[in-house]
Write a structure and sequence with these properties.
By secondary structure, this protein is of the alpha/beta class. It is built from eight helices and ten strands.
Length: 232
């Protein structure tokens, strides 16, 4: 479970706030879509939750751990164990084969050898890439690379999955398939999911939609989200 309370983020070196009073609770197996205007801080919010940027106020709880008070080393340990990341740019390492790319989070947790290979292969099978474990990334399409990114994000059974525009580089058909796979895995693994997207179609497939503003989050019923002209 993820619980964000009254989160605040200021512009660097300034007292001006990017956003404030951001509160959100995400239950296990639930995926919440975050929409909003360009520049309002959607990616920054994900970075704060992940500890890649520090917030300037508020609390972030994952299960029973308060994240915002952890030092960098402690946060890194929690991140390796409990976080899964899916980003628009994929970040697949070109010199590693698919099995090795997916196994990276396991290696960072000290799981290697046959155990890591077996888990990576099983996850590749679940995302429809079974039998291609030894392929290099250059042989894959954009949609296939995104599936590898999803497999890598989920192979270690994270408690929290963060996705920043995971379908932004894909055509509509591939985007729908990739998003369905991501949501299926989040729900099936009882993880909490946060999805930043500019796509209303993608947002509507999530369990809830919220709009980030400088003053906090506004819940958007799916049917009304299309009327929010501030959402891209």
């Amino acid at each position: 479970m993820l619980n964000i309370e009254a989160l605040c983020k200021r512009f660097p070196g300034s007292e001006r706030t990017l956003f404030e009073a951001v509160s959100l609770r995400v239950e296990p197996g639930e995926c919440v879509a975050i929409m909003g205007e360009s520049g309002v801080g959607k990616s920054t919010l994900l970075n704060c939750v992940a500890g890649l940027e520090r917030c300037d106020g508020g609390r972030i709880m994952l299960d029973h751990t308060r994240l915002d008070v952890l030092d960098d080393d402690a946060f890194a340990r929690v991140r390796r164990r409990s976080f899964g990341f899916v980003f628009q740019a994929f970040h697949i390492l070109p010199h590693l084969d698919l099995r090795q790319n997916v196994a990276l989070p396991l290696w960072m947790l000290g799981i290697d050898g046959d155990a890591a290979d077996a888990r990576a292969d099983a996850m590749l099978l679940r995302v429809g890439l079974g039998g291609r474990e030894r392929d290099l990334p250059r042989r894959l399409s954009g949609g296939e690379l995104q599936r590898v990114a999803i497999a890598r994000a989920l192979v270690h059974g994270p408690s929290l999955v963060l996705a920043d525009e995971p379908t932004g580089n894909l055509d509509p058909e591939r985007a729908a398939a990739v998003l369905e796979l991501l949501l299926e895995q989040v729900r099936g693994e009882a993880a909490a999911g946060l999805l930043v997207t500019h796509s209303l179609a993608a947002a509507r497939r999530c369990d809830r939609i919220v709009r980030l503003t400088h003053a906090g989050l506004i819940a958007l019923p799916g049917a009304d989200a299309a009327m929010e002209d501030g959402c891209e």
